[in-house]
Protein 1
Amino acid sequence: MNAASRSRRTSPRAGARPCPCGLPAAYGECCGRFHAGQAAPTAEALMRSRFAAFAVEDEAYLLRTWHPTTRPARVGFERGMRWTGLEIEDVSGGSPFHTDGTVTFRARYAHGGQPGELHERSRFTRHEGAWVYLDAVFTN
Ligand SMILES: [Zn+2]
């Protein structure tokens, strides 16, 4: 990411806009605080914050919340891809008292103006105490 796009994304008003994850909260009080360094307390919170990180193209956050055994060298953001909505369908485990969890969700996007949807079950586990993304089962 170049310096110009970085400064545009971190304008003073960035924290006040609605969170991309779909919860009725401002970005700064919702997923933005996880992107800023606070630990996500549940697998669902981590899932939402990772979706939001794709939406705001926060590669560093995506990489540090990815299990080291499955983490890619880098995250590519496709040009013309815009994440537009997230719907959590099912959660199992993943609470502050669990060490594993799965989250099934639908993520909506527009790619070059064409709407699309990703339906996926993601697996989460803990690494050094913090929730991390392990891998995904594509359900369609
Ligand atoms: Zn959020």
Protein 2
Amino acid sequence: MNYEELKIKYQKDGYIVLENFFDIVFINKINKIVNDIILNSKNINKNNYLYDLEDAHLQNGIPQVRRIKNPVEQINELEFVIKNKKLLQLLKCFLGANIRLHHSKINMKNPILGSSVEWHQDWAFYPHTNDSVLEVGIPLANITEENGPMLVIPKSHKKSIYNHHDNGYFCGAIKSDDIKIIEKKIKPLLCNIKSITLHHAKLVHGSNYNKSKFKRPLMLLGFTAADAWPLMGIKDYNKFKNNIVLGKHINEPRLSDNHVIMPLPVSRNEGSIYENHDGDFWSIQAKFLSNYDSALTYSELTNFSNLSFVHCNSITFGLISHTSSLPIRNINKLGQVHELGLSKYFYFTILS
Ligand SMILES: O=C(O)CCC(=O)C(=O)O
């Protein structure tokens, strides 16, 4: 397919995947720099301007970086990525002759721990005066079903702009009631290293946690047409001007008819998309045992406990409801796990 045909596909579906776009030398160069950034995270123990850390960071001395923030803007050696001629040529076809870098990030998605990303539209985070806004994905490893590929809802960029608020505050995630309707047509963006993905800022997307033994680093670069101006304003005008990667700065924003819900007021615990949900959560698992005389054991429940308290954020209470009349063995080793077994029901029955 030539770029014009790809553009038609992108306009129709809201995303495209291009296999073998870069050569391996280009990707290896990025990976070498990224590995050094990860190694340097050994010196820090809380989130800062560059690092968004998993809760398990430095447990057993192992760095667990969730996201590298604005790497291209902050690490000079990575500038070559946004200067790549082939990439700029492709973007020119999609966004026109004048293009601005909006942001960059690398989501590391480490084995087992790598966090999921809730369903969202990038447009909800950074609405602009027009929707010539997209994000490029550069996988820094092969992306498979198991390691938490980005999931997209094809054609959703042409439908609604969803509310990304929780209790009146912007939380960066679509409400679960809305998701029940849109989640039906999920498409995982599986691709090999050297590929590139493009998705429209209004496309609904998210991703699961990494179930594999392999990390899934994904570099994401947000670009806009230079005449798309951010509705949330410009903090640093010089930086805004300097972020032009192709063509020239344009001081006359193009206005187009778009539905916008402002990402305001900001979340009370302002942080990345991984952290913005307010309040805390419970995790619940129901276990049916045909023999109610056999007790559930610690080893049968370690996955539940790990997923709840190591992998997820903000889960404060884990509940196992089961059909054994005996208590769970060694439940105290499972963290904040509590049980509601048959003995409790018998107790309620006798009392009532
Ligand atoms: O890392 C992913 O799989 C999804 C990334 C994403 O949508 C985001 O960071 O906004």
Protein 3
Amino acid sequence: MKILMNNNKSFFRLMQICSRCLIFLLILLPITNTSCKKETTDLVKVRGIYGNPKPFWDQGLNLNDLGVNAIFVHSGSIDSSMIKRARSEGLKVFAEFATLNGKNYVDNHPEAWAINEKGEKIEAATWFMGVCPTEPGFRQYRINQLEALLLKYDLDGIWMDYVHWHAQFEDPEPILPETCFCDGCLDKFSNDIGIEIPTGTVRDKSQWIFDNHDTSWRDWRCKVIFEWTLDFKNIIKRVNPKALLGIYHCPWNDEEFNGARRRILGLDYNLLKETIDVFSPMVYHQKMGYDPEWVGENIKWFGNTLGLDNNAFPKIWPIVQAANDPGIILNEEFEAVLRGGLAGKSSGIMMFTSYAVAEDDGKIKVMKKVYKELIEKSKN
Ligand SMILES: [Zn+2]
């Protein structure tokens, strides 16, 4: 009987301890959860739209009423009246700058036409026509455009777009050619690396490089892309030092398409994080054939890969898909990708495009809800 009572007592004490533990855990859990959430949302500084703000303004909407605090607009669409109105609504203005897309340029400047491993002029990769990134005339052409843009408008930043060797990564079946084997690129590679490429056809030369210096070739190509960002950074420092340098880029991890982000596109994050203030991975889930959940997973992976310090540059402000292309993006899906784009170490968000949101009341409501939530959370 005594033993039983003791056992009962022990059991009772055990239950008391367990329930205290449970209460403690129940109190602790929300605190831990809140502190994690706070860490993420407090960092969110940019609630953006990508594209012309006109479709909102045409409807009599003010963007600051929708929670937006930044617009990212193609450099050719910016004018003084747009900047004036954006400033009156407290918006930051960032210019998207098409960098290595030479769709019309190569028609008049055949010297800038990128060459494939067979010695042929490359074909457009759907709507994209990458130029040869080492062609000096084209480089100067873009540099002049950038200087003129920075001198004309007081911008908050330049977002480089199409910063990669010729390819198409936005489709479920990407186009990933080997370029560029023009005389200029072969000479520059040969001089920079200090090797002599044997004489022969372009096909012979490219094969010799793949067989003997493939790693150096891939590294060199990444360096060429990095040098574009370095040139841009130096011009910004000189003309408008407070402006940020951002980049829209392919979001693939190191394995996707056999490492094509670095191997074919020439994007090396370790190099780019030296010059880039803000990375904007183009996480267009539907265009690329992914589920909406992929967006958050990708952004978490990217933040860890860059090894970011939350309070320092570079930062991550992803761009997610709102446009109904190729299929319909439902409101819930749009909300899921907006939230996914804010995952991990992201501190900003925008969507492709302003038109896709402005034409759909449901998407306007989703954007406003998510952005107003971010404002509220940042106050707490
Ligand atoms: Zn070339």
Protein 4
Amino acid sequence: MIKIIASKNKDNSLMKQMETLSKIRTSLMNDSVAKEICEENNMGVWFLASVPINFEDLDVTAKTVNGNITLNPKLMKKSFKIIMRYVIHELVHAIQHVEDYGTKQDDKRKDYLNREDEIEAFQYQVKFDEQIRGEDKAEEYVDGLLDFHDIPSDQKRDKKEEIMEKV
Ligand SMILES: [Zn+2]
């Protein structure tokens, strides 16, 4: 048996994670972009209440496996807006997993930003970002994303338009 003794000091990171998860859930269930993601995928908004979200050490910032969203605890250092930006992106993947359940739709061999599942996730993520931080910041983010993934300069304009399509 493992005995867990709650730490009373301010560094109770488990408590902080629980608080953040509660804040994420409330915000997700009330977010217009999150609701739109459900509606456009013919998924009831009840999904926002049930999609599993937790914190766990990862080698990436966030990931979704079989509809379960996992966030890296390092995200706790970021602002809540940034945390939600990741949650919105992963929410799209969670819905994709549920919709594609039982079918093999693995295009993981394609380059990251040429994958349809990633494009859809980024489109909503950027829409969310635009609503929360404004179009300039959202556009700046997309520019950085294209640079980070080494999109050749002759393809940048099209790719940017594609990712910002829902803005
Ligand atoms: Zn993704």
